[in-house]
Amino acid sequence: MSPIGIFDSGYGGLTILRQIRQLMPQYDYLYLGDNARAPYGGHSFEVIYEYTWQAVRALFQRGCPLVILACNTASARALRTIQRENLEQYDATRRVLGVIHPTVETVCQLTETKHVGLLGTVGTVSSGSYEMELHKLDPAIHVTGMACPMWVPLVENFEYDSPGADYFVKKRIEGIMQADPQIDTLILGCTHYPLLMEKIIKYVPQGVRIVPQGEYVAQKLEDYLHRHPDMQARISRGASTRYLTTESAEKFQESATLFMHEPGLVAERIDINNPS
Ligand code: DGL
Asked: Mutation test of ligand 1: which of 44, 73, 150, 247 has the most ligand atoms closer than 8 Å to its C-beta?
């Protein structure tokens, strides 16, 4: 088995897995959520990089030739170092891809006012990665970032549907729209946020487009595999998905079953602290 590895700090990457699997159901997938150490958003650059590289190695060791960092924080803080330094030493035939580049390519085509809002974790917003990638494609785009440190804990603690969630979602959306009323495109720059979509839609003003990432990441991955037939040939086609977590398997199963609408979903707990 050589599945596509999908990694996130917790449950958020499931929103990406769902869309990828919908578009390409033929492949095998191996999902890893580092739930024991989530959220990553407020950690330092070094810690996010260290955790992410450990997780990627855990997926490599289980046969994945290709790993998707289905996490903006990890994509912003660790992807570049992994691509430029680690892969060369570890195994230059493996690949790691992130979620920021596919999102940015789409956003450039969607915005008309060229005023874009970015909602994300502290790690993602403060990294400046979105601005950098957007400006490579269109230097005229104006980006306003707003960190939403409470949103991931709401999802990880299963409070995404609660009245408390309304308070935190409303506060940040009003905040970003006040900071730049010309925003016409709002990036949900955290893979956990689509799980708060019902609340988000309630507070985003009409005419502002909300951009969740799953669909675009899935399309760009399909495109990548077409352009890299060698990689495509290495991925096994058993149409299966396995779930790994660093927290309790029962806890993951309970939450992931709801997020994925997949009754009977089975997860396995693994330790990724010391991968070789
Ligand atoms: N899903 C991760 C992201 O896209 C959440 C980060 C976190 O664990 O704080 O950024």
From this structure: 73
User: How far, in Å, from the CA of 160 to the mean position of ligand 1?
Assistant: 15
Q: Is the pTM of this model over 0.90?
A: yes
Active-site residue list: 71, 190
- For CA atoms 135, 150, 40, 195, give the dihedral sign: negative
Q: How far is the CA of 190 from the centre of ligand 1 (A)?
A: 5
Name the residue type at position 41: G
Per-residue pLDDT of the chain (276 residues; tens, 9 = 90+): 899 999 999 999 999 999 999 999 999 999 999 999 999 998 999 999 999 999 999 999 999 999 999 999 999 999 999 999 999 999 999 999 999 999 999 999 999 999 999 999 999 999 999 999 999 999 999 999 999 999 999 998 889 999 999 999 999 999 999 999 999 999 999 999 999 999 999 999 999 999 999 999 999 999 999 999 999 999 999 999 999 999 999 999 998 998 888 888 999 999 998 765
Ligand 1 within 6 A of CB of 212:
no
